[in-house]
Records
---
Amino acid sequence: MNMITFMLTASILLSLALTALNFWLTQMTPDSEKLSPYECGFDPLGSARLPFSIRFFLVAILFLLFDLEIALLLPLPWATQLKHPTTTLTWTSTIILLLTLGLMYEWAQGGLEWAE
């Protein structure tokens, strides 16, 4: 099996696994905050001078971190044309593993929770 076929198969299997996991883990009980048109969770009619929670900025920084790390993976399809594509696959798998471990750590520490 050549590298392109392997990468396509791995991408499809990972996408299907994550989609199935999403359907399995999500909560399907809408409440008033989920049904409101404002997704930020703040009262739009209250005072504009209320301070933001530091958790909001932490989640924003985590988003930027993961977004920039994904940008490192963009050259991956072209890297299959190198002499040793398995080296590229190893480094890519290492990056994805580190990102996954970091996300699991933040989740376990409660860094992704809005309420304190």
---
Amino acid sequence: MSVQSYGCRSSSQICRPDYAAGSRFVGCLKSLLTSGDEEAATTLLTDEVKHVDAIIELSNDDWMKETTAPIPPQVLLGLWTLEYTQELTSPLCITSSRGYTECVRYLLHRRADPNAAPGGRSPLHEACSGGHDDCVQLLLEHGANPNQRSDDGRVPLHFCETKSSLRCAELLLQHGALVNQTTEELQDTSLHIAARLGLLDHVELYLHGGAISAINCKNLDGETPLIAACGGNGGDGNIRLQLCQLLLEEGADPEAQDQQERRPVHHACRKADHRLVELLLAAGVDVNATDYNGVLPLSCVLQSAELYRERRPHLTVRALLNHGARCVYPEAFGMVLRYCSGVPEVISLLYSSYLSLEVCSRWRQDIPENVFQTHESFYTTFFSLSGTVRSLQHLCRFTLRKHFNSQCYHSIPLLPVPAAIKDYLLLAGEWSDSLL
């Protein structure tokens, strides 16, 4: 159920509900909804309301009603506007949001308006938000508008934000919902929303339903659905990987840029999602592309390495290096330690990518004491390398990697050498922890 705010400058703006927030009826209804007593709530709504489209006020925080209420200092200073919030709804909105199918059926048979939205969201919006497909079907069969906008500018498809709402989305499309409509605030399409939330089945449904024509459509932030998928938080890694693969197969541009000139690979690196990064690299993206602020994909993963330590960010770093990513300038290695000291695997990989790197004792101050103690063995070895000469083995590796450059990932596996040597050349296997 939605919230609607009204300014207090004019009393004519205030909605006069049939059942006010302080009434006995609303008190009883809220108690039954809280307890989940569907039968009793249904009986109350069907037997006691004046008419099927009655407006019910579930809450009202108008503090100005009380003449003795002190005026907040922020209002006097002009930092707050004089607004209060009413939460308005109707019997059909309540039952649709709760999935009370039989009560929805009863109210519709009593000619309840399926498009009435006293609180800014229609019964169809509410049913889609809750993933109640039986209610969605009833509402559509009784004339609910599948393209009606809520007060915040979203159509019912935009409310299909959970796995359980897939059938709701299918029904909406079958009844004429326009798949490429955008939200008014962010200009997101349904495909943007599903991709961001990691809803693979929804993405497949929308693509088959016409969204493929807008697969590279940008929202207000310049995000395409692929960028939204790479930067989103919904779904597990496997689902997100399949989702992005599907978008790429259907023509999503892997080099699309948002308003900050960040590409999908920047977003994937910031999430330290090495499999997604490898998918994008296989699609031919520029491993050294910079965003508006000059940030490289490698910098993105280094900045978030400790945040996503459980995702093994060194695997993302290794994938980038093996595809020709430019390494960090030696002068900035101390900053890398500041960001990534808690992930020594990353430090080891980066150190192995230089022909030579003079280890500075002053870098020790960039490592928090607790981190140093946790990884004392590694850092003791690391700082003991100051002034030492790199091994001939490392120099040979560096020379071969420089020769193959961005083709390391593809060319080194083809060399007629033992697998252990290939792993060493690709900064992988048991050699990945070596600082020699």
